[in-house]
Task: structure prediction
Amino acid sequence: MPSTTRPPEVGEPLEPLPKEFAAFMRPELPGLMKEIGAEVTRAYPVYGRLLNGPNADAIRQGVEQALYAFVDRVADPGKNAALRDELLRRFGRVEAYEGRELDTLQGAYRLGARIALRRARAVGQQYRLSPTLILAFADALFAYVEELEQISREGYVEVQSRASSEVPAQRRRLLHLILTGPPLPQALSGLCEAAAWPLPADVTMVALRPPLPEHLQAGLAEDVLFDLDVPHPHLLVPGALTPERLTMLDAALAGSHAVMGLTVPLAQAADSVRWARRVLKLIDEGVVADAPVVRCEDHLVTLWLLSDPALVGHLAAAELAPIEQLPASRRDRLVETLRVHVSTRAPAEQVGEMLGVHAQTVRYRLRNLDALLGDRLADPDHRFALEATLRALHLLSRETGK
Result:
């Protein structure tokens, strides 16, 4: 008699993994993310470009969610994965906006799975796990990949289901392509024609902070491109922010917070939105003062000084090494005196007023600094490095509250 046992559905693993297996895999995830990122971008260079674009944070978050959700499911099969699902749909939308078939994304998913399986085998050898358990892991992993592909396909179909003549869909795709540059795609002119959007020489990007007002879209001028249904919503305004443009934006953005990027050539639009988003983050960190509308152009030095906080730490260690071993309270007093001294070039009396100490105290500290730093204060290169470092440290101290 033939068997009546029903075969498993597509995407359904043959056997559940024991919950304890999550404890073996979780410590491997940070290193696994880096390895997958390196191998996927080597195999699919298009994803390397996207990881250096304005949506890089969302892409990395999506990869992280996909990996951690798998391990979380092993530990707790009922755990909610709504954030993962939305980010994976976003991956599918990106593929549709850029005109690729889903084969590329599916190939990246499967390459990631092979790398994860390779790591699981190494973990299995390390902890002497049974071959049966590793086979169960492989089965569950590739079933999980099919699930990821299906969720991304939902986002892909969502975009493709819109009629090709639908102007809003064309304009959203156009905005996405502009922000992937440079170089700008050759098909951009044709897409501009299909979207009924004149190609400008210069643009100004605007980064928005959710939640967004319901009237926002209705208040925008006809030629403003926008993407409001993403984790980091943004606008593209053709040209500079003229008084008329600012009036329009003030009305449309009423009730929300935004950062106006720099006006740049079209090919640099991704830079403009990246800088604007960085200022939003600095606002959240308390470095830049909050306001309904903030302009990037008012914070260019801050953006430059804090473009790489980790590098600031190394520069500070090098430039301030002679005073690093002093007791913390004395070191802090000397550093603050040095910051005011090199940034103002003011006499001791004025520096003392700024610091709330006597001028003689300032002179005493400066003599100590001369003795500790030697020729650094007289050397133009070191003096510039010191001033930049001290300004950056002072900005970072606003974030930490020190």
